[in-house]
Amino acid sequence: MSTFTVVEGRDPLLSVELAYGEKVIAESNAMVMHDGLVSVEGRMSGGLMASLMRSFANDESFFIQQIEGISKTGQGQIMLAPQAPGDIKVLNVSGGDQYILNRGCFLACDAGVSIENRMNSLGSALFGDTGGFVIMQTSGSGQVAVSGFGQIFEAAIEPGQELVIDNGHLVAWSTGLRHEISAAASGKGMFGRMLSSAKSGEFMVLRFTGHGKVLVASRNLSAYLAGLSPR
């Protein structure tokens, strides 16, 4: 099986080693360099309709990279990097231990993992910043690499607990978790909650419950880009 290794540093890279015939799927334009013992080809993921759905409904790339080991005498190596600076985390998935990935957070997965499109709820799509109308969910068994803007923190949630997350920081979460959208601040009535949220600078949040893990990034890419616009 291909080997995923995070090369730590100020801006980490993902090193992937592949034996002959092993394949890895990566986000478009993720390649930094390779040793010539792998092939890199662009292709559609899951056919025309699935690729169109990724591109138009979820702001993901229409094409993905298929990377394959081509050396019969040794392992090939390729270095991958996300488009935005920040941490890379490798998730192990199998059976019922699967994840939903926020848009722009998928980096790569091995051949044992499929990234499937599924419809998001209307509220989460419009206000939750959880990946748009079509979200990506893992299936199968293997490794998935995700990226976040800034540092990634992993939080475990147990039954009876609740975790409140500013929705612009969400990277990925276990399929065993449930979430609902609400105003960030408390108050009497919807107007009171929205007014209090506006004063605090926090607006919509996600309240996660159930059993599983949530990965959050220290930085909010949308807020960062909005701050750059006036300049």
Automatic annotation (TrEMBL):
Signal sequence residues: none
Gene3D superfamilies given in the database record: Mitochondrial biogenesis AIM24
InterPro entries registered for this protein in UniProt: AIM24 (IPR002838), AIM24_sf (IPR036983), Trp_RNA-bd_attenuator-like_dom (IPR016031)
Pfam families cross-referenced by the UniProt entry: AIM24 (PF01987)
Taxonomic superkingdom: Bacteria
Annotated protein name in UniProt: Uncharacterized protein (TIGR00266 family)
Source organism: Azomonas macrocytogenes (Azotobacter macrocytogenes)
